From TrEMBL:
CDD domains: MPP_YfcE. It comes from Allocoprobacillus halotolerans. It comes from the Bacteria. Its cofactor is a divalent metal cation. Keywords: Hydrolase, Metal-binding. One of its GO terms (molecular function) is hydrolase activity. This is Phosphoesterase. Its EC number is 3.1.4.-. The keyword Nucleotidyltransferase does not apply. Belongs to the metallophosphoesterase superfamily. YfcE family. Residues 1-159 form the Calcineurin-like phosphoesterase domain.
Length: 179
């Protein structure tokens, strides 16, 4: 199974459209969204290509492929326009004998972890900074933001065949790790 992991779209249609073009080119099976889908929030500038209504339309085209968690900029009213569930604070998935704990990062983060065990993968966004590391047997993965990165390039994640990657919008692999 090939997964694409995207966080912190913040309503940027241009960046999200680029990611979904890559999704199609790479024949990805599922799209994991780690929150902050439509709005930029009061602390962030407007991202380039800010068009939340167009992002809604594009997201809804992939509703049967999306697994999503709620971010701190996501509101209850967003669920009224999105045709897939996105209000959970976290989701657990089991893939290739690993537990993947998906969350946005504003409730759980590296300093406030849920109950995890060795071999688990903690996936989060929120900070707009890429992270791919293993500490105490736990893999930490943050794909950064596709619209408003605070460190490095605009990027997303890919998981396939036991390997996690952080990939730029230009399709350059920035980091990778076998888990």
């Amino acid at each position: 199974m090939k997964l694409m992991i995207v966080s912190d779209i913040h309503g940027s249609y241009d960046d999200f459209k680029r990611v979904m073009d890559i999704y199609e080119e790479e024949q990805v099976d599922k799209l994991i969204l780690l929150g902050d889908l439509l709005y930029h929030g009061p602390r962030n500038p407007l991202p380039e290509g800010y068009q939340p209504k167009k992002v809604i339309q594009l997201l809804n085209q992939y509703k049967d492929k999306i697994i999503a968690v709620r971010g701190n900029c996501d509101a209850e009213v967003d669920q009224m326009v999105l045709e897939f569930p996105m209000r959970s604070d976290y989701i657990e998935m089991y893939i290739d004998q690993h537990r993947f704990f998906l969350t946005h990062g504003h409730l759980y983060d590296e300093t406030h972890l849920p109950m995890l065990q060795q071999g688990d993968v903690f996936m989060y966004g929120h900070f707009h900074k890429p992270a791919l590391k293993k500490e105490n047997g736990i893999i930490f993965f943050n794909p950064s933001s596709i619209s408003l990165p605070k460190a490095g390039e605009k990027s997303f994640g890919i998981y396939e065949n036991g390997e996690l990657k952080i990939v730029s919008l230009g399709k350059k692999c920035l980091q990778s790790m076998k888990i």
